[in-house]
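Holo prediction — adenosine-5'-diphosphate.
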Amino acid sequence: MNLQISNLSKTYHNGVQALKNVSLDIPAGMFGLLGPNGAGKSSLMRTLATLQQADSGTVTLGDIDVLNEKEKVRKILGYLPQEFGVYPKISSYNMLDHIATLKGVSNKAERKDLVESLLNKTNLWQFRNKSLGSYSGGMKQRFGIAQALIGNPKLIIVDEPTAGLDPAERVRFHNLLSEIGENTIIILSTHIVEDISNLCSSMAIICLGEVVIKGNPITLTEAVKGRIWEKTIEKADLVNYQKELQVISTYLKSGQTVIHVLSDNQPDLSFKPSVANLEDVYFSEITTRMEAMPV
Ligand code: ADP
């Protein structure tokens, strides 16, 4: 069962066009949606989660018309939004029990088994009686996944899940996502390239509401192989390099400024070939588009 998005567009009342003819074919497994802030990721996620209307386009999940059969979608959807509010005083056990009741798990014994297995899966068992308000960021996100998993969803949408997590919490969260069954479609939206390269077998980059590139992260990286060059420079010279070359990224390495340049040929002998990675793909797609944006 694939999620098929065709020509989806959305303009908000203030005139911002958040989605421009977005078309994606998303198979089962982990799909990464990558883009800078304001790219339109949350707008797309909210539309798929039936929380907002699109202006035009179609979305189907198997034989479900996602934009028009909202109730059907909600039955098979698990959603972890960007801002995940929790009731601070209630324990995770009681909250999961409550959500399971709302989602129609009316048999008490069945609900007990479900809640216990979710708490174990998300490593929250030992904290099950603690109030959600006392949870760390990572624990809240794991609780968010636990509630999203109730009802055996076929489509799981996770919007910017690792923002604010420390590295250990991020790894734990990634492991949890990767353990969810292969037959489920999991859409992970993020602006963190590493999250995608570690987890996803297919992905798309969106920028200013448009899909700019899509495919398998390894294949996409292969496509820029041999065209990424790096050089350590004086920071003050950066503008000159930017005038002459397509500088796709700048970062610090042991306190020194290093640039990555996209070029079919070695710009000059002072540039070294760099091993291309997904970040190079991302920046080579994003940088020129963002520079062209009116301020
Ligand atoms: P992302 O999740 O990639 O950061 P969003 O989908 O949140 O992007 O936003 C895309 C664009 O739409 C941004 O320019 C944002 O300011 C705008 N936007 C998002 N939500 C609204 C809204 N409810 N009303 C008006 N503009 C919005």
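READOUT: The pocket of adenosine-5'-diphosphate is lined by residues 12, 14, 16, 18, 35, 37-43 (CB under 6 Å).
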